[in-house]
Write a structure and sequence with these properties.
alpha+beta; STM4215-like; 6-stranded mixed β-sheet; two-stranded antiparallel sheet; about 25% helix; about 35% strand; elongated
């Protein structure tokens, strides 16, 4: 799930920013510009409901260009595209094709970092079930005694039960 979310965001940003050179691990000394660096997102966890927990993702994606203005322009294209779609990014499958699912991110932020570098901050929350066994919901139920009231509406108390109850009843 996380890999699918990340891949979807990467594809979306690269498409909307005009396909700058992507970097995923370390940025080499002589990297190409314009480019985008996708570091590993930061993850914070917390409780959500009785059956789920939440994972909060923070992703600081770096845009590089020969000038700060150029980097800002690249990142702004991606930010504007996210906002124009109401913060919803199409989830892609393993072949890179859009699925019917969408990932909703929080409002993105743009922050200048250094000469020729701008950071696009994207955050989102993923809710996941605790590891519980798979259970099947009952489609119908039938209690056999309900059809036989003589089994549960008996008014006869046997002698042993009467002795036991007499200790409590005065």
């Amino acid at each position: 799930m996380l890999e699918q979310d990340i891949a979807s965001i990467i594809k979306f940003i690269l498409d909307k920013a005009g396909n700058p050179a992507p970097y995923y691990w370390k940025v080499p000394r002589s990297f190409a510009v314009p480019s985008v660096y996708f570091p590993t997102p930061e993850i914070d966890t917390g409780g959500d409901t009785l059956s789920t927990y939440s994972m909060e993702y923070f992703w600081g994606i770096l845009f590089f260009h020969a000038t700060t203005e150029g980097a800002h322009q690249l990142a702004l294209r991606a930010l504007t595209a996210i906002r124009a779609r109401r913060n919803m990014i199409a989830v892609i499958d393993t072949d890179g094709n859009k699925t019917k699912e969408t990932l909703r991110v929080n409002d993105p932020k743009l922050k200048p970092l250094d000469n020729g570098a701008v950071q696009l901050e994207i955050t989102w929350t993923s809710r996941r079930s605790y590891d519980t066994g798979v259970s099947v919901k009952a489609q119908s139920y039938h209690i056999q005694q309900w059809g036989k009231p003589e089994l549960y509406e008996s008014k006869v108390i046997d002698a042993a039960m009467e002795v036991a109850l007499s200790k409590y009843i005065k």
